[in-house]
Amino acid sequence: MSGQARLTGLMARGAAFLGSEQAILAGAMSWVSERHLVAAMSNAGIFGVIACGAMTPELLDAEIEGTKALTAKPFGVNLITMHPDLDALIDICAKHQVGHVVLAGGLPPGGAIEKIKASGAKVICFAPALALAKKLIRSGVDALVIEGMEAGGHIGPVSTSVLAQEMLPTIAEQLPVFVAGGIGRGEAIAGYLEMGAAGVQLGTRFVCATECIAHPNFKKAFIRASARDAVASVQIDPRLPVIPVRALKNSSSELFTAKQREVAQLLDEGKVEMLEAQLQIERYWAGALRRAVIDGDVENGSVMAGQSVGMVTKEEPLADIVATLTGEAAIALDRRAA
Ligand SMILES: Cc1cc2nc3c(=O)[nH]c(=O)nc-3n(C[C@H](O)[C@H](O)[C@H](O)COP(=O)(O)O)c2cc1C
Q1: Of the ranges 49-58, 64-73, 231-240, 299-308, which one carries the lowest mean pLDDT score?
Q2: What is the whole-number distance in angstroms between the Cα of residue 271 and the centre of ligand 1?
């Protein structure tokens, strides 16, 4: 059997679940994953996902409408569980009959999974550990993403290779599992599929697509950077648990330190509750990311990027990136069969 035929076979379950040609799920990226990039992804045969981020329900409504105008292929929506209007955002997805909703940013609040499923959509959640994966499966999720700390954006403490070994043998038969974090080439895609993943999720590798609206400075920073430049943020106060964020190193790490001090002091003075403190941190990230992605301030803004950034070497059409990844995966599978 040819490498391409083996790849098609290994991707069949994930592709059928997503309704796309390839079992490649696009990781939603706030400010980056808007209508143009998402439509280009779905048109190129992978599964595009709109990043709702901090959008209001009205803005999400318009973004879904705009994406539908650019592609007839299926795409999903990523919602952050901490969003204060989560319920209304779920209603917007239901109104548009969005087929897949990805819930990110912690365990979904009670009723969210049921509500999404009642609209006919499939629910995809992140599982950072085996015990949480089992809990989410019991709650009725349709698929899981397991994401390692090599990824860009908010990260957990464990590497992709360890999560994949720990989790795939136990859960991959029960539901489709997509592996994310640090994937920059097709050989890695082939490897995770052979380990039992239904598919993969990538973010960093797609940022320099021609169709991506990110500021040229943001793309240039990706093209220049190597893996070691994508570092995790540091928590400065043990009382304020902040989820680490992986981004290219620049002056913004000092700004984040200052922000943490400010929020920790508000906590100390009893001026905010922990949930509000965490929301303030998340709003800080949304603003800092916007500054880099939209305004092009890659020195003071947050240039969120995964360690695979070293494998991003040029700006090119999304379809070419997908063809490169699947071509590499097919060649790798060809070699293994020989
Ligand atoms: C610039 C950027 C912004 C991101 N924003 C989000 C987000 O809003 N929601 C989310 O669930 N994940 C977000 N992520 C994570 C991606 O969806 C994806 O899971 C991750 O990029 C995969 O790892 P990789 O970067 O190693 O490919 C972001 C990643 C990057 C690089």
Answers
A1: 231-240
A2: 32
- Domain that includes residue 130, residue range: 3-214+313-337
Residues 242 and 147 in one domain: no
* 243 is a domain residue: yes
Three-point CA angle 259, 282, 207, nearest 5°: 110
Residue 93 Cβ contacting ligand 1 at under 6 Å:
no
Amino acid in the structure at residue 255: L
**The model scores a pTM over 0.70:** yes
Of all protein residues, the one whose alpha carbon is nearest to atom 3 of ligand 1 is: 29
**Ligand 1 nearest-atom number relative to CA 247:** 31
In sequence order, which residues have a C-beta less than 8 Å from that of residue 25 and are 6 or more positions away? 14, 18, 46, 47, 49, 76, 124, 145, 178, 180, 199, 200, 201, 202
The total number of structural domains that make up the chain: 2
Atom of ligand 1 nearest to the CA of 289: 1
C-beta 78 within 6 A of ligand 1: yes
CA dihedral 156→226→204→152, nearest 10 degrees, is: 20
Which one is predicted more confidently, 155 or 110? 155
Q: Which residues contact 6 (CB under 8 A, 6 or more apart)?
A: 330, 333, 334, 337
- Whether residue 319 sits in one domain with residue 242: no
Is position 67 within any domain? Answer: yes
Which residue type does 72 have? A
Same-domain check for residues 186 and 210:
yes
Q: Which of 201-205, 284-288, 310-314 has the lowest mean pLDDT?
A: 284-288
Contact in structure between 81 and 108 (CB atoms under 8 Å): yes
Q: What's the 336 CA to ligand 1 centre distance in angstroms?
A: 31
DSSP state of 277: H
Angstrom distance (rounded) from CA 73 to CA 45: 8
**Same domain for 200 and 250:** no
pLDDT digits (tens, 9 = 90+) for 13-51: 999 999 999 999 999 999 999 999 999 999 999 999 999
